[in-house]
Amino acid sequence: MTIVLRANIVDSSEQTPMEATERAGPAKAQWEIHRPQITHLYRDKNMKLKEVMTVMEDVKFNASERMYKDRLKSAIDFWKRGLLNEFRRLLSKACELVPDILRSAYPRTLDRILGVFILFIRQGLPEIAHCLRTYIAKMAAVVIGSQLPWNRLCRLLGMLEAESLDQAIITSWKCTNDALRSGLGRFSESSIKADLCFLEYVHGSQNQVEEERLLRTLLSEFEKTLGTSNPLVMKVIIRLAQNQLHQRNNQEAEDLANDILSAALDRNSQVTVVMQMKVLSVLAASQYRRKAFHSAEKSIRRAIKITRDEWGVGNPWIIRYMTVLEEWLREWGRIEEVDELRMEIDSVVGLDDTDTGELKF
């Protein structure tokens, strides 16, 4: 082994500075910047690796074939391991809940539905948004009386033109949130949750700096009226921590997350399990970025544990956290643990009608 290694070593004194830089390849920050484009070309456009390399060279991003393969392996393996199947199965299970959701007429039903539409559209999945709109409109006609406003509202959602859908949803969502504030009060839990959801999906998906500005304005208003320990204030802080994570302000994100976790230790704490699991997720992601892998694993496992203890193994949040942990374990080469975790995820997600061959529509 020593002989083989020596045979592959190049005397650094024989390299020019330019050759040394080219041998090292792009810095990690450059890989992070260009990774979405590289993945899109390789996976979505189905281009060959050498074709991807040629395209990237046009934007002054030069790396060897081996460098590409090393970095693409984790992402492409993750895609090939069937995450699209899990996505389909969970979407199928969500659709099964639609009739009960429509019947419940919960105050936030509309804003949650609109949020899902925006999420799919902004993630480049307008076809799924369209199918879901059509399904909800048809289901509303079955389970909601024709004389009720909900029936007509769902029918109108199904009739919206695809080209104007994004703006129509945003306008409708604003009206819904205004109605919640007027009917339930500015400082009601339903009202603030709706506002935070709106900021996340409408602003956070396109302009995180603007979302941060709006969140800090909201936080200042709520702290002034309710005090810093109020659970509604903490909800704003948690969303701000998520925003900072997305902007890669890791230290600020961790500081905000740790503030919530510290508050959870108080005897009369009003920090809920939902709040704790969300900030643990933020903490884990930030620690992973800093290569504090032991701490990241500990945080995500803690999020999984408290979620399982509170709601059982079938909770959707557990699936999300387990999937994150699975990807990390695979990257770290802990394959036996990956296989065990994959079996657990499969047992939680289960099968849908496509898997069993019992399609209903």
Would you write up a description of this structure?
This protein has 361 residues and is mainly α. Among the domains are: 28-97, no CATH class; 105-194, no CATH class. It has helices spanning 2-7, 17-24, 28-44, 49-57, 65-104, 109-122, 126-143, 149-159, 165-184, 189-204, 208-226, 231-246, 250-263, 273-289, 293-311, 316-331, 335-349, 353-356. Helix 6 (109-122) packs antiparallel against helix 7 (126-143), helix 10 (189-204) packs antiparallel against helix 11 and helix 13 (250-263) packs antiparallel against helix 14 (273-289). The N and C termini lie far apart (60 Å). The model is unreliable at 1-23 and 69-81 (pLDDT under 50).
Task: Name the descriptors.
361 residues, disordered N terminus, mainly alpha, single chain
Secondary structure layout:
Layout: H1 2-7, H2 17-24, H3 28-44, H4 49-57, H5 65-104, H6 109-122, H7 126-143, H8 149-159, H9 165-184, H10 189-204, H11 208-226, H12 231-246, H13 250-263, H14 273-289, H15 293-311, H16 316-331, H17 335-349, H18 353-356
Task: Characterize the quaternary organization of these chains.
Answer: single chain
The residue ranges in which pLDDT falls below 50 over 5 or more consecutive positions are 1-23, 69-81
End-to-end separation in angstroms reads 60 Å
Can you summarize the main beta sheet? Answer: none
How big a fraction of the residues is strand? under 5%
Enumerate how many helices there are, as a single number. 18
Can you write the helix and strand succession as a string? HHHHHHHHHHHHHHHHHH
Q: Helicity, in percent?
A: over 70%
